[in-house]
């Protein structure tokens, strides 16, 4: 059980290539990652490893005077659920019209369709009850937390877990390349902090 101790603001969308490019131009981000030929602009930035995502949040904090950071794992799940207790924020099933995932797969009898096979521009699918888009699917989202295989000893105030395997960090949300079960609000994934993948991205939160 977690009680979020402090208010926070949540990015409505995953960070885009367009936004990332501003950071690169301003010198806050050192690398301009590959887009796999899928386009840039409002496409979610991909092929960024954890430290680069952190650098973006730190640059944004300097530019705005606000406290931006990656989501903690518990903040992320709170935001993704948007007040629900169902498997997904949209119910106990998810459909190809609701999120970008490998729609050839089915969960609890959900419909199947021809899969898109790449990320979609942010906001292409309906928002959840908190007005946040793509919390299920599109790209995985890096969080602040060090990876642990369970919640034993995890913070109960919404803070980030800074112990455990910190060379790997928690990823949430699933991606365009995943079966629908990976998109569940409760599902946890993890990745090496120095690896880049074409289905890894992030969004930012802000402390009030």
List keywords for this structure.
alpha+beta; 208 residues; 16% strand; 7 strands; globular; 3-stranded antiparallel sheet
Spell the H/E element sequence: EHHEHEEEEE
The helicity comes to 10-25%
- The strand count comes to 7
Shape: globular
- Adjacency order of strands in the biggest sheet: 5-4-3-6
State the end-to-end distance.
Answer: 23 Å
Which structural class is indicated by helix and strand composition? alpha+beta
Please report the number of helical segments: 3
| Low-pLDDT residue intervals, each spanning 5 or more residues | none
Mean pLDDT: 97
Radius of gyration: 16 Å
Largest sheet, if any? Answer: 4 strands, mixed
Brief summary:
The protein has helices at 17-25, 50-64, 73-81; strands at 8-10, 67-70, 140-147, 165-172, 189-192, 200-201, 204-207. It is an alpha+beta fold. It starts with 7 loop residues before the first strand and ends with a strand.
Describe the structure.
The structure is a single chain. With 208 residues, the protein is an alpha+beta fold. Helices cover 16% and strands 16% of the residues. It has 3 helices and 7 strands; from the N terminus they run E-H-H-E-H-E-E-E-E-E. Strands 5-4-3-6 form a 4-stranded mixed β-sheet. A 3-stranded antiparallel β-sheet has the order 1-7-2. The longest helix is centred in the first third of the chain and has 15 residues. The chain is globular, with a radius of gyration of 16 Å. It starts with 7 loop residues before the first strand and ends with a strand. The model has no long low-confidence stretch (mean pLDDT 97).
């Amino acid at each position: 059980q977690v009680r979020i101790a402090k208010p926070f603001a949540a990015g409505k969308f995953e960070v885009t290539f367009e936004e990332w490019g501003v950071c690169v131009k301003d010198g806050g981000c050192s690398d301009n990652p590959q887009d796999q030929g899928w386009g840039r602009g409002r496409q979610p930035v991909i092929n960024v490893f954890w430290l680069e995502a952190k650098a973006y949040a730190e640059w944004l904090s300097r530019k705005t005077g606000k406290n931006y950071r990656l989501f903690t794992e518990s903040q992320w799940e709170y935001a993704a659920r948007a007040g629900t207790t169902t498997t997904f924020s949209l119910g106990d099933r998810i459909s190809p019209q609701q999120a970008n995932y490998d729609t050839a797969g089915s969960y609890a009898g959900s419909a199947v369709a021809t899969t898109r096979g790449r990320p979609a521009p942010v906001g292409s699918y309906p928002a959840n009850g908190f007005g946040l888009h793509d919390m299920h699917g599109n790209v995985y989202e890096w969080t602040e937390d060090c990876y642990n295989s369970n919640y034993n000893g995890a913070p109960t105030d919404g803070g980030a877990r800074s112990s455990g395997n910190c060379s790997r960090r928690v990823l949430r949300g699933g991606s365009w390349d995943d079966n629908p079960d990976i998109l569940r609000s409760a599902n946890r994934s993890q990745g090496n902090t120095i690896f880049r993948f074409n289905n890894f991205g992030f969004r930012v939160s802000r402390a009030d």
